[in-house]
Amino acid sequence: MMKLSFHGAARSVTGSRHMVELPGQRLLLDCGLFQGRREEACEQNRDLGFDPKSVNAVLLSHAHVDHSGALPVLPQHGFSGKVFLTRATADLTQLMLEDSAHVQVSDCSYVNKKEHRKGRASVRPLYNTDDVRKLVRRFEGTRYGDLLKISPRVTASFHDAGHILGSAAIRVKYTSHGNTTTILFSGDLGRSNMPILRDPELPPPCDVLILESTYGDRLHETDREVMKQKALDLLTHAKIHKSKIIVPAFAVGRTQDLVMRIKELVGEGRLDPIPIYIDSPLASRATEVFRRHPECYDEETTKTFNSSGDLFASRYIHFVSSPEESMRLNKMKGPCVIISASGMCEGGRVVHHLKHAIQDEANVIVFVGFQAEHTLGRKLVDGWDVVPIFGIPTPRRAQIVTFNGLSAHADRNDLLAYVRAINPLPAKVFIVHGEEKQALSLGAAIHTEHPGIDVQIPHRGSTHDL
Ligand SMILES: [Zn+2]
To answer: Ligand 1 centre and the CA of 229: distance in Å?
Structure first.
């Protein structure tokens, strides 16, 4: 009997963890970090919802921490299997996890210093760089399309999801007594015509689909010209008002994407460059990984890469690495753009930038990615006038701009098209990685279009027979 159980990103967005339960073995799809309210996050990241020792192998869809960030917890509790992933994902994930370990250690010591003064208990990091090292030894990098033998009855293959470098939808095939069952896990799906990456591959046939639904009830702006104009207006505003534009962005994916788009505007002669600071050591290192994996590029990027040899270099783009340089940016006057992580403002240098820039109405905070519930980013997107920054209620006077057109996620139409493209249609679809409203809305749309498909919207901790 095959079963699926869901341990995160079920009626929510972060903490992607889904278990394929087969007779005598368990395969974990993703092992993401839960992000949100601190106490809840702490609890859900320390107790993953299953026994790590019982997991035979992990298959990882892509490097983003909401999919990979709890992996180092596995070996702490006796996991001794392999982690299968694409080669670009292996390189990126190693960086992400090392960074995540550093951020946790330094955030914990920052919080502890404050709590200590108030005589409160101390917090400890979920894992450190030693744990990351132990995990990375278990990585088994693969190429798109290769058929991998996971165990005597199970094979798997990775299919380009077009979401970030190395991202994949994963197909798992189980054979027993001459019968086969295939499960396709979408991971996060990208969109067509994104910079650098190829368009998402058409889905291979499957019996069961596990589908993300981040934007399950929303459509993105798809007109490139409208998006460009919006970006130009913003940068012009910055010039006139000497604004700082703070862009909280995932260091991997969004940052490189933004740099490519701004370069395009400057290249077309429509924008006088203003200084752009990529203030994230992780983004700088991730950009190196992008350079090392031209096998993931689309045609246009391959051409640029072959002729110029460097996709990201420019005289107005500055990669900031030392903390001193980063602190100098806090005091600097605009106009400038500061792209910094983390993307949901839950930690990292961007929180310091927000602290310094948020009370000046000339400044603009631009959101380009999805903001999960209860994160600082979500509070800002939702228009809170006072937000907690490092626990201190801080008035917000800076303008907030949301740019969903730059999202690296498929929208509702893309997701419906993905299901439609599976031939023959799957018998079951499980909707994950979306807040309840998005998941329910997408589920209803799939059910209306294909009444024959059994559509489920699993709860966290639920188990389903296949
Ligand atoms: Zn992602």
So the answer is: 26
For helices 412-420 and 436-449, give the axis angle rounded to 10 degrees: 40
CB atoms within 10 A of CB 18: 26
- Residues 65 and 92: their CA atoms lie apart, in Å, by 10
Q: Ligand 1 mean position to 464 CA, how many Å?
A: 25
463: CA distance to ligand 1 center in Å?
24
Strand-by-strand arrangement of the 399-402 sheet: 317-320, 276-279, 336-340, 244-248, 364-367, 399-402
- Higher-pLDDT residue of 115 and 425 is 425
Q: What angle do CA 394, 399, 402 make, to 5 degrees?
A: 110
Give the integer Cα–Cα distance in Å for 289 and 197.
Answer: 14
In whole angstroms, what separates CA 323 from the centre of its chain? 24
Residue 329 neighbours by CB distance under 10 Å: 22
Q: What is the DSSP letter of 391?
A: T
* C-alpha to C-alpha distance for 26 and 24, rounded to whole angstroms: 7
Q: What is the pTM of this model?
A: 0.89
CB half-sphere exposure, 309, CA atoms < 13 A? 0
pLDDT digits (tens, 9 = 90+) for 264-304: 888 888 888 889 999 988 888 888 899 899 999 999 889 88
- SS3 for 120? coil
Residue 461 near residue 444 (C-beta atoms within 8 A): no
All structural domains of the chain = 3-218+408-465 (3.60.15.10), 224-406 (3.40.50.10890)
Sign of CA dihedral 113, 114, 117, 119: negative
Q: What are phi and psi of 131, to 5 degrees?
A: -60, -40
Cα–Cα dist 344/346, whole Å: 5
Distance from Cα 242 to the centre of ligand 1, integer Å: 33
CB 404 within 8 A of CB 223: no
